[in-house]
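A brief tutorial aside. Many learners find it easier to grasp structure tokens once they have seen a single protein encoded end to end. The record that follows does exactly this for Flagellar motor switch protein FliM. Read the sequence first, then the structure, and try to relate runs of similar tokens to stretches of the chain.
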Amino acid sequence: MSGEVLSQNEIDALLSALSTGEMDADELKKEQTEKKVKVYDFKRALRFSKDQIRSLTRIHDNFARLLTTFFSAQLRTYVQITVASADQIPYEEFIRSIPKMTILNVFEVPPLDGRILMEVNPNIAYALMDRMMGGKGTSVNNVENLTEIETKIMSNTFERAFENYLEAWSTIVEMEPQLADFEVNPQFLSMVSPNETVVVISLNTTIGETSGMMNICIPHVVLEPIIPKLSAHYYMQTDKKDRVPEEIERLEKHIQSAEVSVVSELGNSEISIQDFLMLDIGDVIELNKQIEQPLIIKVGDIPKFIGQPGKVNKKLAIQVLDIVKGGDDNDER
């Protein structure tokens, strides 16, 4: 039972209304006993929990950071992309909320079914294209008259940018984003039924001096197979240590294939500039080492081995005799 404390003035006004007949006590009692009914709109069915929406927000926070890095490198200018909001609404409502003419990139994300929509405000798209063509990043809105060249540049750019989506989702699912369609009129785009629930992640985007929005629209049917993974419980159970050996093995393979320089010094000598300028073919420079003394073998400019010179199959070679201890600060061998 909830009780609300009335002030003395409110009590006096209530008694006055009852005494004058403006308010009927029986109707007041009846109103209090009636059940409260909350309006529920079946067209706006909430099919994602708050926990799942928070997980999607975290994923797209990572995606926004990856996009910021990608576009900064491509455009050589100031780029800032952040998540503004994440909401679940009917698909029809999303289509009504975006401009009548805009940049629409439709992606397939196998192994998940369905398609994901990336809507880019025309001001952002034109600023991006102008910068890629060598301009200052000037924004215009001529999306109704896109040329074939402009369409190709935009679609290729956003297709490469959306490759970062794979990394953003890597902890949940290994998807392979592929550009399926490029459109400018939302009315010609029919991804799902109008009443289908979609999650819309809005990204605040700044390129140079131009600001606008990018929206990622994900239908419920796409996320349905992995919805159980979009929870804090799943994140807590995920054992990241299981991936550590794989990462170490991958790192070792990269290190093993890396190329390093190996140099053996026969010796060195100091001569004057005058003697250096007078050098001619056939002159002999005396080194500071005897012929029977071992040579130092350097790996990446760091002394690592001791060896002796020789020949193998008529080719100059050097034989490793020992390991240099204390070759660098971290070498204890």
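Self-check: Residues 8-37 form one domain. If you spotted this yourself, you are ready for the next section.
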